[in-house]
Design goal:
Layout lengths: L4 E6 L3 H13 L5 E7 L3 E3 L5 H5 L8 E3 L8 E5 L2 E5 L4 E4 L5 E3 L2 E4 L3 E3 L7 H4 L1 E2 L3 H21 L6 E5 L3 H21 L7 E5 L11 H13 L2 E4 L4 E4 L3 E4 L4 E3 L2 E4 L3 E3 L1 H4 L10 E2 L5 E2 L2 E6 L4 E2 L1 E2 L4 E2 L4 H19 L13 E5 L5 E5 L2 E4 H28 L3
Parallel strand pairs: 1-2, 1-9, 2-5, 9-22, 11-18, 12-13, 12-18, 13-14, 20-23
Antiparallel strand pairs: 3-4, 6-7, 7-8, 10-19, 15-16, 16-17, 21-22, 24-25, 26-27, 27-28
Helix pairs in contact: 1-8
The chain binds flavin-adenine dinucleotide.
Length: about 400
């Protein structure tokens, strides 16, 4: 009998976990040895990070230990991937300095902030990226509010959110829910707090249905959010941001949500990338590397309907992971692989806990009904990950 194939999955995000779990379900350990590498011992729900960032939920609600999600047949290695060595079919790890070899590599390392070269952004802004980063944002914001009691400087309670895409709008929605509580706690008049959402594009939520965008803008504006649309940030300083045209907004808390690029490890591997993302073929393979598959935010797929890349979403990463697991299992057994076809199920953006907007199937939803659908989507992910047990444990997000 031949040796089991070594499948190495990098990253325990939506794409990586779905691949590893799917492979374990379909292949026996005599057919494949599946190893999953992730830098943390836990998986975090990236789609929920705007909540702990604003402080509307504790960050522990947004993560779950990876070991509790995996069947025993998957080997979990907690370490940071340092480099992918394609020629040698090896991956170098940072902590242990070990090298892991593979027959098939699945890369699901997620994204990094795209700053579009805006001066000072990396140094002075905060980013909604992972548990550490959102914990830092919340603690920083609360500390700034506590200082306001003494110092009375408006910039301490001015929050600038760069980017009014999905993440930016969801974060602003959570802030709208959180600020009244913070103001009560620190004895600050609510009207003093400024939330300014700055966007370079001519609209909030580019690509979303116009009526839904209007609903979101009207709702958030009614809660005091200021929108500055078609207004790129030119520079981020220690004092705040400078906008195109010269306006300066003094702010102690600038949070950038304006875009993502693929993980640097992928860019450095020698695989061709566009903003760190790999334009994969229909089998999710990296060009020129038949045994290397890319899923999630590190991958780039073109929507043939409009000739534009699909936005990087958890929905896409999940579907890719599920399909790739089936394909790899079939391939390892000498069978065929089927082309991946993305089937969008709809998108719902929350505007705080009780309000949302979205399209599900062909239906446009707003308000409480959309917020309910958002909850259903979140629960579905928990179910896919850890069955009913995880839904019951983590379902009260
Ligand atoms: P991720 O889920 O980001 O996972 C990558 C994993 O790799 C992480 O565990 C990370 O720790 C690990 N990792 C990274 N580098 C290394 C390394 N060097 N070594 C080891 N491990 C490493 N999408 C939707 O579909 N719907 C939504 O409602 C939605 N809302 C969002 C809200 C917010 C606030 C944000 C930030 C994103 C949202 N998204 C949403 C987008 C979605 O979260 C991403 O597209 C999705 O997480 C991508 O999945 P992934 O598997 O590629 O990567």
């Amino acid at each position: 009998m031949s040796e089991p194939k070594k499948v190495l999955v990098l990253g325990a995000g939506y794409g990586g976990l779905m691949t590893a779990k799917g492979l374990a379900k379909q292949l026996s350990s005599s057919e494949a040895e599946v190893t999953l590498v992730n830098q943390n011992s836990y998986h975090y729900f990236t789609t929920e990070l705007h909540k702990p960032a604003a402080g509307t939920s504790h960050h522990d609600h947004t993560r779950v230990e990876i070991a509790s999600l995996l069947p025993r047949s998957v080997k979990f290695v907690q370490d940071r991937v340092k480099a992918i060595k394609l020629e040698e079919k090896k991956v170098e790890l940072e902590g242990s300095n070990e090298e892991l070899s593979y027959d098939y590599l699945v890369v699901g390392l997620g994204s990094a902030p795209e700053t579009f070269g805006i001066k000072g952004l990396l140094e002075n802004a905060y980013f909604i990226r992972n548990i550490d980063s959102v914990r830092r944002i919340r603690e920083h914001m609360e500390y700034m509010f506590s200082r306001y009691a003494d110092e009375k400087k408006d910039e301490l309670i001015t929050i600038v959110v760069g980017g009014a895409g999905f993440t930016g709008i969801e974060y602003v929605g959570e802030l709208v829910d959180r600020i009244p509580e913070l103001c009560r706690y620190y004895d600050i008049p609510e009207g003093k707090v400024r939330i300014v959402n700055v966007e370079a594009a001519p609209t909030v939520l580019p690509g979303f249905d116009e009526a839904l965008v209007k609903y979101a803008v009207d709702y958030l504006s009614s809660k005091g959010v200021e929108f500055k649309i078609s207004t790129p940030i030119e520079e981020c300083t220690e004092e705040g941001v400078i906008l195109k045209g010269g306006e300066e907004i003094k702010s102690a808390t600038v949070v950038w949500t304006g875009g993502v690029r693929g993980n640097k490890v992928v860019e450095d591997s020698g695989i061709d990338t566009m903003r760190g993302r790999v334009k994969v073929d229909e089998l999710l393979r990296a060009p020129g590397h038949e045994n290397v598959f890319i899923v999630g935010d590190c991958s780039l797929m073109i929507n043939k309907e409009n000739d534009r890349p699909y936005p990087p979403t958890a929905q896409m990463a999940t579907q890719q992971g599920q399909q790739l697991a089936k394909n790899l299992a079939s391939f390892i057994r000498g069978g065929e692989m089927k082309p991946f076809v993305y089937e969008p199920k709809g998108t719902v953006a929350s505007l705080g806990k009780r309000v949302a907007i979205g399209v599900v199937g062909s239906k446009k939803l707003t308000g409480g009904l959309a917020a309910f659908m958002k909850k259903v989507i979140d629960l579905r992910w928990l179910y896919l990950l850890g069955g009913i047990g995880l839904v019951l444990r983590k379902g009260k997000l």
